[in-house]
Amino acid sequence: MDPLDRAVQNYWHLRAEGYSLSTRDELSDTHDNPYATLLRQWLKPCTPNQKALDIGCGPGFLAIQLAKLGFITTGVDSCESMLEMAQKNARPLNIRFVLADAMNASFENETFDVIASRNLVWNLPDPEAAYRTWFNWLKPGGKLIIFDGNHYRYLTDSNRHDRPHRQTHKYLGDIDIGIMESIAKQLPMTNEDRPDYDQILLKKVGFINIDTIVLSRTSEKIRDFAIICEKNHAD
């Protein structure tokens, strides 16, 4: 395994329990969750036997939402601790969880009707290759949904004034966020303004009907966003 990939995986192993606690808070919240709301708006109605993939599923939030919408759902993560949390959070739903890398899982081309991810792309070493792989896994007309943000962009852009993750994330405990800041400095998305850069990559790969929604801002700069796009029916 590449040293950078291993460093990312080791960090998320440390974060697994706290991240799962945050996910449980979201799942138990009686108020409408913006991620769940957008999935319902974008994906209903679900027809029988449609398949969805939560790539980089972490503790399973998107996989659970997709299963509730009626999709035959698979969740993939490279961190075994995260998958253990996902399996607990997903009970009693029938969701298949797979231990694999986000770019190298052994799926056949044109397997899924929907591929979704949350807070994954920013910590990938080669986002364009990932988008290309997911494009291949989608059926013609399939949808790719990305929930992400300009995480750690403040490390490379002095004009950003985002608060450090210690101040914005619950259940961090005594985990040293400097570990992830050090890793983030080596990741390509830390140097890019998103989602504009994602749109460039997605168009290059071949996605169409790319739509972006801003979920939050910090001092007028985009912090969190959602992207939905499609694989051309002709592909």
Outline the secondary-structure elements:
Elements (H helix, E strand, L loop, with lengths): L2 H26 L5 H10 L7 E5 L5 H8 L3 E6 L2 H11 L5 E4 L12 E7 L8 H11 E12 L15 H4 L9 H7 L11 H10 L1 E12 L2 E11 L4
Parallel strand pairs: 1-2, 1-4, 2-3, 4-5
Antiparallel strand pairs: 5-7, 6-7
Helix pairs in contact: 1-4
Describe this structure in words.
This protein is α/β, with parallel strands linked by helices. Helix 5 links the parallel strand 4 and strand 5. Strands 3-2-1-4-5-7-6 form a seven-stranded mixed β-sheet. The model has no long low-confidence stretch (mean pLDDT 92). Helix 1 runs parallel beside helix 4. It is 37% helix and 24% strand.
The backbone outline, from C-alpha atoms, is globular
Name the poorly predicted regions.
none
Number of strands: 7
Order of helices and strands: HHEHEHEEHEHHHEE
The strand order across the widest sheet is 3-2-1-4-5-7-6
Main sheet overview: 7 strands, mixed
Helicity range of the residues? Answer: 25-40%
Report strand %.
15-25%
Arithmetic mean pLDDT:
92
Counting helices, strands and paired strands, the structural category is alpha/beta
Give me the oligomer status: single chain
The end-to-end distance, rounded to whole angstroms, is 32 Å
